[in-house]
Amino acid sequence: MTADRRxxxxxxxxxxxxxxxxxxxxxxxxxxxxxxVARRAGASPGTVSHHFPSVxxxxxxxxEHGTDxxxxxxxxxxxxxxxxxxxxxxxxxxxxxxxxxSLAGQRAHHLAEFELKLLAARRPALAPAADRIERxxxxxxxxxxxxxxxxxLETATVRLTAMLTGLLLTELRRNDLPPAVExxxxxxxxxxxxxxxxxxx
Length: 201
Hints:
Blueprint: H1 3-10, H2 14-27, H3 34-41, H4 45-51, H5 55-80, H6 88-105, H7 107-122, H8 127-148, H9 153-174, H10 178-194
Helix pairs in contact: 2-3, 2-5, 2-7, 3-4, 5-7, 5-8, 6-10, 7-8, 8-9
InterPro entries: Homeodomain-like_sf, HTH-type_TetR-like_transc_reg, HTH_TetR, TetR_C_31
Protein name: Helix-turn-helix domain-containing protein
Keywords: DNA-binding, Transcription, Transcription regulation
């Protein structure tokens, strides 16, 4: 037995959750089976069943695991954007660059996130974790728009959050190089901020 396989057999559930997210990104919910997760994690099917009594329980844990990572990423991004809080153009440019970098480096994670959101629409047990992702995006958008002095903050937050969701999905489908992604995101963000009366170059 290899060291990796021993760790998968004896360790905690982390590798199983990562394997689940990877399978979701590659093939959607149908790709997530006990045997497939065990094979990807280098564990035995019995190890998966020991930690998770059903595929449903595994998916619930995976969405929570993925949500924790997404929320942490967004919170770091919010801190990084604090220095641009009074400059709409600088904020849009920094946000576009951060998202383009994240899409390039963590494409599978973002794909899994969208798969989990769709799955939550069909499985109520997954909805609370999916809602946490939406609230995290809305929180960083609201914080930034408030700092930028956008009027009608709640409407602007809903609009920009929805726009970002659509842009992320479109860019995942394109799977383009980061500079092109960043340019498109920056253009869209500049245009959206301008509709709220902010002055951009």
